[in-house]
Design brief:
This protein is mainly alpha-helical and about 90 residues long. The chain contains two helices and two strands, in the order ααββ. Strands 1-2 form a two-stranded antiparallel ribbon. Helix 1 packs across helix 2. The longest helix has about 50 residues, at about 1-55. The protein is rod-shaped, with a radius of gyration of 22 Å. The two termini are about 40 Å apart.
Length: about 90
Amino acid sequence: MIKWITVCAIAALGFWYLTADQGNAQTSYKQKLLSNQRAMSECTRKREYAASRMATSAANAENECAEKLGFYREAGHWHSYKGSRQ
């Protein structure tokens, strides 16, 4: 009886450890996407402001920022070429 309790306890702890680790990785990636969005917003805002001060077009501000930061847009989010998607 004690053997079964020990085995079940170890299995439960192993399951908890594995699922808790996956949840943190997902949260971390969501935080990375938010960080990428903030960086793109800030860069685009600065480029548009600079373009307005120099009386030039700001039409390519988003593309220039994406190239500068190494980002690409997919499914409505900014992803980094440098990072993994997990």
